[in-house]
C-alpha cells in the first residue's frame, strides 16, 4: 500500500469517520428519544374513560392505575386530591405547568415528562383538574443503547485500523532512516534492503542505484588518484635522479651533462603537459552545465579546423583529407575554444597513433537534426576489450602502452564534448584504424545568430 494511501486512510479514519458516527448517533438519539418514553395508553383515551365511567374519587384512582397512567387530581381549592406518582414525579408534573416554584430545583434534575391537563367531573368534588403523564419504562442506560454500542465499536475499529497504518508507516520511515544513515556513514559496500512495501521499495531501489553510483565514483576517483600518482612519480623520479647525478658530478664531460639536462627538461615538459591535462579534466568535470552558448556557423568552424589540421599533418608527414557537403547556413551552439580543443586532441591522437604517411580525415555530414563530425585514421586501432575504458582518466590501452601520453586526453575530450550536450562514440579495428564521431545537435538552417561568430 502506498504511503499516500496510508496517510489518506489514516486521516479519514482518525478524523472524519468518528466525527460522523458520533454526530449521527446524537442526531438519531435526539430525534427519536421519545421512543424511550412511549406511552402505554393514549392520553385522550384516558380522559374519555374518566368522563364516561368515573363517578367517584376511588373510580378515578382505579382507572388511572388500570390504564398505567401517572396522574394528579387537584380540587377547586388547589388541594391535591389524588396522586399515584412519587414525590419527585409529582413535583416535576406540577413544575411543568407552573403550579409550584419551590420544587423547580428538584424538577430540573428529572426528565421533563409529557403532561396533559383536563377538567373532569367527580362526584362530591365538582370540576377536578387532572394532570397526567405517560407512565414510562424504566430509564434506559445510555451506554447500553444499541446505537451507542455499535458506534463505539466502529470507532474502536477505526482507531485500531489507524494505529496499524501508523505503525506500518512508522516502520517504513524507520527503514528509510536506516538506509539514509547507512549512506551518510559512507557504507557503500552493503546493499540496500528493498523488501519494505511498494513506495519504500521504489525509494530503496533509487537509493541502491545511488549507492552503486557513489561506489563507482569512489572507485573512479581512486583510479584517478592512482593514475596521477603513477604518472607523476616516473618523471619526478627521473628528474630527481638526474639532478642528484649532476650534483654529485657523475657526468664526466659537458656532453653528458647536456644529455642529463635534456632529459630533465623533457620530463619537466611532460609534467607540465600532465598538469595542464589534469587541470582541464578537473575544470570540465566541474563545469558540465555551460549555460547559453553562442550560435555559430558550423561551416566556418570546421573549415577553419580543417585548414589548421592540413598544415599540421603536412609537418607531421601525414596525409589529411577534409570531407564535407555544403554546410552553409547551419548553426549550432558552440563554445569554440573548448570544442576546438576537443577536436585538436582527437586529431593529435590520430597523428600520435598513425604511422608516417598514414591517412587522417575530418568527415562532416548532416543526419536529420544532427551534425556528425568524425576524425578517422588508419593507425594501430584499439583492442576490443579496451573500447569501453578509453574515456576513463589515465587509462592506457594495450596498443598504446608503449607510446608516450598522459592517459587524460580522451577523458578531457569527453568532458568537453558532454559539456556542450553533445555525444561522442568510437569504432575501431586493431591494425586498421579508429573513428571518433561527435554528434552535434544543429539549429534551424539560416536562423539569425544571437551570439558572435568566432573562429577557433
What percent of the residues sit in helical stretches (DSSP H or I)? 40-55%
What do we call the CATH homologous superfamily of the largest domain?
Answer: Histidine kinase-like ATPase, C-terminal domain
Lateral strand order in the biggest sheet: 6-8-9-11-10
CATH architecture of the largest domain: 2-Layer Sandwich
Polypeptide structure, described:
By secondary structure, this protein is of the alpha+beta class. The protein has four domains: 3-34 and 142-177; 39-134, Beta-Lactamase, CATH 3.30.450; 198-285, Orthogonal Bundle (Helix Hairpins); 295-441, Histidine kinase-like ATPase, C-terminal domain (Heat Shock Protein 90), CATH 3.30.565. It is built from eleven helices and eleven strands. It has helices spanning 3-32, 43-53, 57-66, 87-96, 104-107, 146-184, 198-247, 254-285, 298-315, 336-352, 409-419, and strands at 69-74, 80-83, 115-122, 126-134, 295-297, 319-323, 331-333, 359-367, 370-377, 423-429, 433-441. It has a five-stranded mixed beta sheet. A hairpin with a 3-residue loop joins strand 3 and strand 4. Helix 6 packs parallel to helix 7 (198-247) and helix 9 (298-315) packs parallel to helix 10 (336-352). It is rod-shaped and about 160 Å long. The protein starts with a helix and ends in a 15-residue tail after the last strand.
